[in-house]
Each structure stands twice: as structure tokens, then as C-alpha cells.
């Protein structure tokens, strides 16, 4: 990463766009404290929460591209296990699990082992595990990559629902239509640098990002 400066506002949906290897995932891992920056600083909630602290881990939810729910456990068991880190009261935990299961339409699969689920439902479980702690900021790395159209639409609806609840959401995508539908502002990363940040409707007028013209035309078949 090279001299990136950005601010993500509370309650907004912020999209990160860039080619493979541009640095999107690295930036997300720095934001979530999984990678220590060699220089510079980052703050959460104006600096009130220290990065990498226990409080930050509760405040931030991160769904990676390689998120893997525990395959030998059922959906219910996965959520109960991860929820136990946040809820000591079993009644509250059960209520939270039922709420998330309903939001993600996982009711038919609640007692199935994760290893027998479809790719789309495994991704839903990965998102559900993160949501169990009710984080204020949700970080999603290519959340709809490889999913069927129906599941993609359900996750889009979930993102909209979470925004309406006041959550802050940051996600990466190679699909321009997806970015346009869900975000107020985007950042474009190229070779580790932030080359554009702003409202998506201004993107086509920026001479610095001509490589994105194809994405605007074809809906984003490349990353």
C-alpha cells in the first residue's frame, strides 16, 4: 500500500474497486487489524476504539474471501459456538441466532452440517457467524463472488437492511452494477494506491481511471 488516505463515514456503504492484486484485500486486512501497517495510522470511531483491541474485534466484523465455517458442525452449532464469545445468556443467544437465521433465510438448513451445504449457503453461514456479535462495522471481501444470482440478490438485500439499521459497511467487488446499486461512495485502488474516491456517478468523468470504462459498459466481468 502506498500513501492511502480515506475516511469511511458512520452508516454508509463504501465500495472498494480494483484489479486483482491491486491491494483491496490488503487494505481490508489492515483496517481489521490482521496486518500491521509499516507506516501511518488508522483509527476506529474517531480513535475511541484501539485497533486490534478486544473492543475492536467486537466492533468490526470481517468476512474474508476464504471464510470457512466449521464443516463438521451444523449451522446451528456454528452460530452457537461463535455466539458464545458475545452472549453469556443462552436465551439471548438463541434469540439472536433465530433472528439471523431468518434474515439470511437459513431456516431449512439449521440442522444440516456445513459440509453438505451449497457454496451460497456456506457463504451465508460465514456472514451469519460475523453478524452474531452485532458489529457496528461490517467488512466484506468479495461477498458475492461465485454465488448464484438468487443468493447474490439476498446478500444485496441484507446489505441494504443493515444500512437501514445504521451499520457501516465496506465491501469489495468487481461488479460495477453491484457497486452502483449499493454504495454512496467508492474508492478505486490501483497498484496499492488510491487513485479515485468519491460518488460513483463522477467516476466516468475521471481521466485517471480510463481502465474502468470497460467495467461500466459490460457490468464488470473483470476485477
UniProtKB/TrEMBL annotation:
SUPFAM superfamilies, per the entry: P-loop containing nucleoside triphosphate hydrolases (SSF52540)
Family: Belongs to the ABC transporter superfamily.
Keyword set, alphabetical order: ATP-binding, Nucleotide-binding, Transport
Superkingdom per UniProt: Bacteria
PANTHER family the record matches: ABC TRANSPORTER ATP-BINDING PROTEIN, ABC TRANSPORTER ATP-BINDING PROTEIN NATA
SMART domains hit by this protein: AAA
Taxonomic classification: Bacteria, Bacillati, Bacillota, Bacilli, Bacillales
Domain (ABC transporter) ranges: 1-216
UniProt KW ATP-binding keyword: yes
Pfam families reported in the protein's UniProt record: ABC_tran
UniProt-recorded Gene Ontology molecular function terms: ATP binding; ATP hydrolysis activity
Name by which UniProt lists this protein: ABC transporter ATP-binding protein NatA
Amino acid at each position: 500500500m502506498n500513501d492511502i488516505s480515506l475516511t469511511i463515514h458512520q452508516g454508509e456503504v463504501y465500495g472498494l474497486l480494483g484489479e486483482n492484486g491491486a491491494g483491496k484485500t490488503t487494505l481490508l486486512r489492515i483496517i481489521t487489524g490482521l496486518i500491521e501497517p509499516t507506516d501511518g495510522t488508522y483509527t476506529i470511531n474517531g480513535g475511541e476504539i484501539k485497533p486490534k483491541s478486544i473492543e475492536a474485534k467486537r466492533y468490526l466484523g470481517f468476512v474474508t474471501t476464504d471464510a470457512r465455517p466449521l464443516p463438521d458442525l451444523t449451522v446451528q452449532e456454528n452460530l452457537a459456538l461463535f455466539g458464545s464469545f458475545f452472549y453469556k445468556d443462552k436465551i439471548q443467544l438463541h434469540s439472536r441466532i433465530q433472528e439471523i437465521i431468518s434474515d439470511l433465510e437459513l431456516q431449512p438448513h439449521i440442522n444440516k452440517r456445513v459440509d453438505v451445504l451449497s457454496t451460497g449457503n456456506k457463504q451465508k453461514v460465514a456472514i451469519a457467524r460475523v453478524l452474531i456479535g452485532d458489529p457496528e462495522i461490517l467488512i466484506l471481501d468479495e461477498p458475492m463472488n461465485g454465488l448464484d444470482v438468487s443468493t447474490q440478490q439476498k446478500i444485496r438485500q441484507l446489505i441494504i437492511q443493515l444500512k437501514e439499521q445504521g451499520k457501516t459497511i465496506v465491501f469489495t467487488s468487481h461488479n460495477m452494477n453491484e457497486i452502483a446499486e449499493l454504495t454512496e461512495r467508492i474508492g478505486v485502488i490501483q497498484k496499492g494506491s488510491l487513485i479515485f474516491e468519491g460518488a460513483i456517478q463522477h467516476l466516468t468523468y475521471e481521466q485517471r481511471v480510463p481502465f474502468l470504462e470497460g467495467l461500466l459498459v459490460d457490468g464488470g466481468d473483470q476485477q
